[in-house]
Amino acid sequence: MATFKTIYKCSRCGATSYQRVIERAQNGALLPTGQYRCTGCRNVFATIRAWWQPRPAPALQTNSRFG
Ligand SMILES: [Zn+2]
Question: Using a CB cutoff of 8 Å and minimum separation of 24, what contacts does 44-52 make?
Answer without folding.
Answer: 45/18, 48/6, 48/8, 48/18, 51/8, 51/10, 51/11, 51/18, 52/6, 52/8, 52/9, 52/10, 52/11
